[in-house]
Amino acid sequence: MERRIGVYICHCGTNIAGTVDVAAVAEYALGLDSVLVARHYEHMCNDPGQNMIKEDIKEQGLNRVVVASCSPQMHEPTFRRVWEDAGLNRYLFQMANIREHCSWVTEDRRQATEKAKALVSAAVRRVFYHEPLEIKEVPVNPNTLVVGGGIAGIQAALEIADSEHKVYLVEREPSIGGAMAEFDKTFPTLDCAACILTPKMSLVGQHPYIQLMTYSEVVEVSGYVGNFKVKIRKKARYVDVDKCNGCGTCWNMCPAIVMPSKRIIRKGDVIIKEAV
Ligand code: SF4
Ligand code: SF4
C-alpha cells in the first residue's frame, strides 16, 4: 500500500518556535520519503489545528500522520481521536517530542532545529512501517499480590482492597509490620510509630478483601500481565491459625524460636538476639 504521510510541526506558542526554526523543520520534512504534506502551526492541539489535519487526511488522502510537538503523555490520545474522527486507524500515527526533548533543553537555536529535524525524520521512518491495529478486550484476573507486609505493603494492600479488589498480602516474617514495628517515633513529625501502624495492621487482618499470608514466601511467578500465576510457600507454624487467639502462652514456654532474619534464644529470663 502506498504510504501518504502528513507532517505537522507545532509552535506551542514560543515554547517550541522560540527555539526551533519550525519553518525549516517543515521544509525539511517535505523532502522526506513518502511525505506529501508538511505544515507548521501555532497550536496543533486546538480545534483549528486538529481540523487542519482532518482536512488534509480527506483532501490529500493521507494514510499516516506525524505530529512534532509535546510529549505523547500530553496529547497522544487527543490526536488519536482526531484520526478516528477522520476515518483513519488511530495507530497510524507517530508523535515526535520536539518540546521536552528538544526546545526545552537547549537555548541553541541551530542545534535545537537540527535535533528537531532528526526526531521528525525518525518519526516519519517509523510511521512508514506502522500497521493498523484493533483494540481487543481480554479477560484479566483483577486480584493483586502485594509482597512484603511493611508499612508500604500494608498501605498498598488497604488502598487496593478498599476499592473492592481482592489482595493477597504475603509476608515472610510471622507478623506484618516490618521495620516500622521496631521504631518508637517516625521522622519528621515524631508521631508514635505504633499509633500509626497498629490500627492499619488490625484493618489488614479484618479486611474482607485481604487474604493475609504471613510466614510465607513467593517461590515462583509465571504468566503475563493480567494473568500471573504465583506459587507461595507457607512455612509450618505448628499451631492451628484459625484457633490461635494470640494469647502468647506458648511463646513464654518456648525455649527457642528461629525466624528467617534473626534468631532469638531464650535462656531462663535472658533473651539473646542474633542476626542470622
Ligand atoms: S500540541 Fe502540545 S506542543 Fe502543541 S500547542 Fe498543544 S500542548 Fe503545545
Ligand atoms: S498458646 Fe496462645 S498464642 Fe500459642 S498457639 Fe495457643 S492460642 Fe496461640
User: Helix content range of the residues, please?
Assistant: 25-40%
Which whole number gives the mean pLDDT?
91
Unreliable runs: 263-276
**Total strands:** 14
Rough outline: elongated
Which molecules other than protein and nucleic acid are bound?
iron/sulfur cluster
Question: Strand order, biggest sheet?
Answer: 2-1-3-4
Number of structurally distinct domains: 3
One letter per element, helices H and strands E, the order comes to: EHHEHEHEHEHEEEHEEEHEEE
Secondary structure class reads alpha/beta
Number of helices: 8
Main sheet overview: 4 strands, parallel
Strand content: 25-35%
Which architecture of the largest domain per CATH?
3-Layer(aba) Sandwich
Q: Return the CATH topology of the largest domain.
A: Rossmann fold
